[in-house]
Structures are given as C-alpha cells and as structure tokens.
Design a protein that fits this description.
Elements (H helix, E strand, L loop, with lengths): L1 H56 L4 H12 L3 E6 L4 E4 L19 E5 L2 E8 L9 E8 L1 H51 L14 H51 L3 H31 L5 E5 H19 L2 E4 L6 E5 L2 H16 L5 E9 L2 E8 L6 H6 L15 H11 L3 E6 L5 E8 L22
Parallel strand pairs: 7-9
Antiparallel strand pairs: 1-2, 1-5, 3-4, 4-5, 6-8, 9-10, 10-12, 11-12
Length: 462
Amino acid sequence: MTRRIIIAVMALITALLAILAVPLGLLTAAQERRAFTDETTATAIALANVAEERIGDRVRSPALDRSVSSLARHGDRVAVYDAAGRKVAGTPAAPPGNGLKPGSPSSAEHNSAADGRLIVSVPIVPDSGSGAIGTVVLSRSAGPLDHRVAVLWTLIGVVSAVGLLAAAAIAAGLARWASRPLTSLADAARRLGDGALGTRASVGSGPPEIRRLSADFNAMAARLESLVRGHQSMMAEVSHQVRTPLAALRLRLDLLGEDTDEATAAEVAGAQQEIARLSRLVNGLLAMARAENVTAAPVPVAVRDVVQDRVAAWQPAADERGVTLTADRGAPVVARAGEGHLEQILDNLLANALDALDAARTIRVRAVAANGRARVAVADDGRGMSAEQQRAAFRRFASGRAGGTGLGLAIVDRLATANGGSAALSDTPGGGLTVTIELPLEAPRRPSRRPGALSPEKSPRS
C-alpha cells in the first residue's frame, strides 16, 4: 500500500510538472530568443543610422569606425555595404553575405542563423526616404543566448527535482501514516485468528476512519473473547456434570447385574451398552465443541513423524481386526497447525476406517507437500461411500453404520478448517474411500548467522 501511494503521488506530481514546467520553459526560452533577436536588430539599425552619413555624404565618419570597433570588442562581426555591394566598413572577419543582392536595395530586414550565430541584415535608408543606399550586416554569437536558455532549463529541472523529492517525502509520510494502523490491525486480526483472544488493535494513530475501524475491531474481539471463554467454561462444566452421573449409573448397573437371573442380566447388559454408546456420544460432542472453538496458536508440525507415530499407535488395533495398516515414508513435510490437532484428526480417521473395514482389508496413510499445502491422505479399500453419503459425511450425526455417533468426520472437518486447511472425500482407485486433509505449510525461515559466528572455511583448526 505504501508503495502504491508513493507511486500514485509521484505520477501525479510528474504529470503536473510536465504540464506546467515544460510549457513555461518553452515560452521563456522563446521570449529570450526574441529579446536577443530584437536587441541584435536594434544594434544593426543604430549602426545603419551611423553609416548613412558615411555612404550618403561620402565622407569619413569616425563615429562609424568607433561603433564597429566597439562591436568587434564584444565579438560581433560587422560589414557595411554600399548599394553596389562594395564593403565600406566593418570588422576583419566579415559576416557571411550581406543578405541583399547588390544593386537591388530593399527596406526589409533579413535575419538568419548560421554556425551558432545570429545574422541580421538592415538596409541603410537616407533621411529623404528615396531608397536604400546600402546594407548593414551584423553577425552576433548566440552563445550568451544558449547559456541563458541552458541556465533556465537547469533551474526548471532543479526546481522540478526538488518538488519531486518533497512530494516523495510527503507521500511516504502520508502512506506510513495511513498504512501503519492498517498493518497493525491486520497483524492483530491474524493473532486473534491464531488464538490470542486478548489481542487488541491500536487506536491512537492514523486517519479517523481507520481509528474507528480499529475501535470496532477491538469491540468485536472483546465480544468474541467473552463468547469463547463462556463456551469453554460451559464445555468444562458439561464434561464434569454429564460424565459423573454416567459413571455412577454404569457402576450401579454392574452391581445390579451380579445377583440377577439370566434374563435380567441380559437386560442389564443391554443397558450398559446404551450407556457406553451415550458416553461415546457425550465425548464426541465435547470433542466437536472443542474443534469448533479452536483457539490454540499454530505451531510447526512434522507431518511425517506424526503419521508414523499414529500409525504405530493404531497398529495393535489393526492387527487385532486383521486389517493391514501402512504409512508411506516420503519427504519430510512441515505444516502449521494447533498442537495436537493433527494427531486428533488422524485418530478419528483411523478409528473410522477400522470400524468400517472387514478383515483382510488395507489402510494406507501418506503425507506429501503439494501446491503450497501439506496433504495427508488416509485411503482404504473397503466398501466406500456413495456420492450422497460423501456429501453428508461432514455433517453432525451423519453416520453410515449402526451404533456410530456420526461425529468423527465432522470433528476432522472442523479441526482442518480451524487451522486454515480443508477436508475432502473421494473414491479410492479400485474401491474404497480416501479422506484428504490439507493444512498450510510452515513458511521456510531464512538462515541467520549470529554475530561473530565463524563460517566453515574460517573455523579454527583443532
């Protein structure tokens, strides 16, 4: 944002300078050239008035000689011609041509430029006005004019550069003033999303609109913190209040079933199974609530190591059911997720897969990095799911088997989403179901060297 503001302001100031400074420079340079031409022409006319006495009266004119000498000292070249085109007076280095054809005098002035010099040709007209009796040709160097024009353009360039630098400084300050609160607000939003519920944005700087936005964000964050804290407190209370009566009820049924007949014992066993199912349902609901209110800060997670660990933990259960459980050893993958969340995701997926498979089936777990994400896939070769079942699998209580709570895949989806990832179902090639979890990859850190650390080639020899 800062760069865009600076570029926009610089482009605007550059356009304004181009619109104003360039025409001003061209206009001023044209005025300088016009003034230089007018001054040179006036000098030639004055010299023609002095030369009229010399040519008209055919007498020597000291004033003409002094004028020519004075012009010569200033670097001008002068030539005075009579009507026949003969040179009457002038400097040793005469101008190129007289500008008038001999024998055809004219009262019109003639200006031209050659070799960086301005040449002015003025006819000599007597007081009687009978016609031109000669011509004065004055050649003056345009060096002073070029110098003044160069100074003019240099001044305009310096002023424009100073203006651009001042505009850049002002734009940078304005951009920082406007973007710093937004950066702080974005950082606060990121930390709030990572689970730091006490995060608040600064409201003491920036434009009024951004300060109001920061204040609204703080109000929202405070409300969110209150809701999450209250929900977490409720979960802890529900966990304690519900589990304790269930444990007591199970204990009483165990005692009741010891001294009863066979028919009553069967009924008691059925009641115990229902209590066990109710306990699983309560545990699943609590896990679901925790998954929907994840506030743990993400940490780097070695995905391959977690996969190997959870596969090893579930291996005895798989062996007991006659299911082959394997994990592909790929390249190391480091993701960002809440501590323990990937373990919980894999536990739910492996438990669901083992419950859904018959003996002699296979579960394969693999982890790879793809498209900037850490991808974990749990594939089995069981009966799989229909397309309709796959669409509803992540909903609460959507179970495809008897006795299931229908919360395992819902918990997986909530945990993956809470960590900035996703969960998806697909058919395994050859039959079965594949659950794919994607999590953000951990950003690579640049290697840093401590001050004074020695490089390998400069390490001391032992």
